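Incident review: delayed structure delivery

Summary: a single-chain prediction request sat in the queue longer than the usual turnaround. Root cause was a stuck worker, restarted by the on-call engineer. No data loss occurred. The affected request and its eventual output are reproduced below so the record is complete for anyone auditing the incident later.

Affected input:
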Amino acid sequence: MPTLFRFLFFCATIAAMIYGTMYALVLFVEPKEREITVRIPSERVNPPQE
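Output delivered after worker restart:
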């Protein structure tokens, strides 16, 4: 039974580290705003008339 508790403690520790990392990213990382230009081929906008 001690092996099961050790395994569960290990899994909980890994999950807490992952959750803490995600929380820190949300708090401290700000996305940069920038303009995006997407070129659309004229064939998609005006399909050829047959």
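Verification: The radius of gyration is 25 Å.
Action items: add queue-age alerting; document worker restart procedure.
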